[in-house]
Amino acid sequence: MVEISTSILSVKKGKESDTYFRLEIAKTDYFHIDVMDGKFVKKDTYQDMLENASYIKRISNLPLDVHLMVEDVKTAIDDFLVLEPNIVTFHLESCNSKEEIYEIISYIKKNHCKVGISIKPDTKIEEVYEFLPYIHMCLIMTVEPGKGGQTLLTDMLYKIKKLKEYINEKDIQIDIEADGGINLKTAPEVKKAGANILVAGTAIIMANDFKVIIDELKK
Ligand code: DX5
Ligand code: ZN
């Protein structure tokens, strides 16, 4: 059974509280918080995500799955740790050295939070291998980060498959989360490739009945 992390990026303005409540009833496993700084990616959702995540924190016990698409990772970690997220995921591509990556991993852990590393479509899966024993989740972007509603890049399925084979071979216990363009059509192949947490934004938020779609994606 996979878990579902609903991206709040496409939640309609003014419908936030109703949407979050309905998502909770529909049993999303996480709220996926897409933090964008307007530099690492064009869009800037930083303040909006801070406000929405702190609102969710106040009204729900469901865990926050924070996805940092920012250049200044440390500042973003400090800003979002306040909300006691379940996990903070940063991009390999926003770091300039291995030392920096290890430093961020330990910084997040020192703050009693789980760590995820995300890689963009053009980044080879091998680049994340050495960090896997020290993190809790690897987030494979199945679209170019920066906006919701895109079409899943099917080449990324091979990357998920390779990662799954590698962690099985090395007996590394981590979650594989796939993010971008996931819907009822693409979910089966993403799960088959080996992802055990699926991020979905548009596919869920646009649905009339959140529970039907979440149950279907979980199957
Ligand atoms: C894109 C974000 C994804 C995106 C998912 O940069 O990381 O989480 O919002 O949205 P959909 O499911 O609409 O592709
Ligand atoms: Zn995301």
General description of the model:
The protein is globular and about 45 Å long. The chain contains 8 helices and 8 strands; from the N terminus they run βαβαβαβαββαβαβαα. Helix 1 (16-25) crosses helix 2 (46-59) and helix 5 (155-169) packs parallel to helix 6. The chain is α/β, with parallel strands linked by helices. The chain has one domain: TIM Barrel. Bound molecules: D-xylitol-5-phosphate and zinc ion. The site of zinc ion has 6 residues, from strand 2.
Write the layout of secondary structure elements.
Elements (H helix, E strand, L loop, with lengths): L2 E5 L8 H10 L4 E7 L9 H14 L4 E6 L3 H9 L5 E5 L6 H13 L3 E6 L17 E5 L13 H15 L5 E5 L7 H7 L3 E4 L1 H4 L4 H9 L1
Parallel strand pairs: 1-2, 1-8, 2-3, 3-4, 4-5, 5-6, 6-7, 7-8
Helix pairs in contact: 1-2, 5-6
Bound molecules: D-xylitol-5-phosphate and zinc ion.
The site of D-xylitol-5-phosphate has 22 residues, from strand 2, strand 3, strand 8 and helix 7.
